[in-house]
Amino acid sequence: MTRIDPTLSPPPDAETRRGVAPVICYPTETLPQPDLALYRAARAGARRAGSVTVPPRDARHIHVPAGHILRIESVEGPQVGDLNLFNAADLSERFYSGKTRALHGTHVTTGDRLWSSFPTLRPIATVIADSLGWYGIDAYGGSVHDVIGTRCDPYTGRLLGGSDYHHCCHSNLTRALADATGMTLAKAEPHIHDVLNVFMCTGFTRDTGQYFMKASPVRPGDHIELFAEIDLLALLSACPGGDCGSEHSSDTAPCHPLLMEVLAPEEGAPAGWTSPEPNPYDRSHGR
Ligand SMILES: [Zn+2]
To answer: CA 131 to CA 146: how far, in whole Å?
Structure first.
């Protein structure tokens, strides 16, 4: 597959047009920067306030009070996790993968925020630690903790000709939300949204622009820590793709559990920290 239409002859200035330098869509200099020193000081004295082990090819939920820390850790073997985050008091406010990508790039690491949906559009979590922060962008253009991908799901499986597979992340997250809230599966499913692909190593091919994945560099003990800026309900699926080095949407790949822990700072929320307000746009939309 190529991106070039062979039936067209390029204009004489094609190379000049291609040579125009890009500009960043959303320069982030004006974004309020997280005070990582403050968060790290809170983290230093934090104690475990709760934990749940996510079984392979399944999902679990945990509540993370505002000012606490959600730690996701690889245990036993390389494993990718698909994370959904909600405002625990209002499920309509949820993680917005696309805007997070627009603001921070295709992958997130320490210092990046996870943003919520319209109309609140505020940071609902801040990455305060990432043991894979050494990875950067590899020779293939791959990086870790992807906000490109959506989540593996049974509908795309059907579309591409596969059989019905019920332990895709979408279905796992749907069951986990139903368990967390008492909702039926039918009521829970529409709340499931595009994920943060924790530990997943992905990119786009240079020649065809296709989304690729490769075996995650994550190893047992690796972790990412998210500071909860609001009260969060977190759902995590241990993807049936395992390390996502070969395939997903099947029982073929070796899969491992993931650990979710909630850490409570010693002194309660960090001194001087307050939960971000919803976006101040007045919502008049020109009327
Ligand atoms: Zn998955």
So the answer is: 15
Q: Are 173 and 235 in contact (CB under 8 A)?
A: yes
How many angstroms does the Cα of residue 132 sit away from the middle of ligand 1?
20
Averaged confidence pLDDT in the chain: 94
| Ligand 1 centroid distance, CA of 94 (Å) | 19
Report the pLDDT value the prediction gives residue 104, as an integer from 0 to 100.
94
The residue extents of the domains of the chain are 52-229+236-264
Question: Sign of the CA dihedral 190, 252, 60, 88?
Answer: negative
What is the 281 CA–ligand 1 centroid distance (Å)? 35
Q: For residue 37, how far is its CA from the centre of ligand 1 (angstroms)?
A: 34
In order, the DSSP letters of 212-250 are: EEE-----TT-EEEEEESS-EEEEEEE-TTTTTSS--SS
Tell me the C-alpha to C-alpha distance, in Å, between residue 75 and each of 28, 54, 95, 111, 181.
35, 10, 25, 24, 27
Using the mean position of ligand 1's atoms as its centre, give its distance from the Cα of residue 114 in Å.
19
* pLDDT digit string, tens, across residues 96-117: 999 999 999 999 999 999 999 9
Scan for tokens 């190593």, then name that residue.
201
Report the C-alpha gap between 57 and 106 in whole angstroms.
25
Residues 37, 246: Cα–Cα separation, whole Å: 39
Longest Cα–Cα distance in the chain: 67
* Cα-based angle 60, 246, 134 (whole degrees, multiple of 5): 75
Give the pTM.
0.94
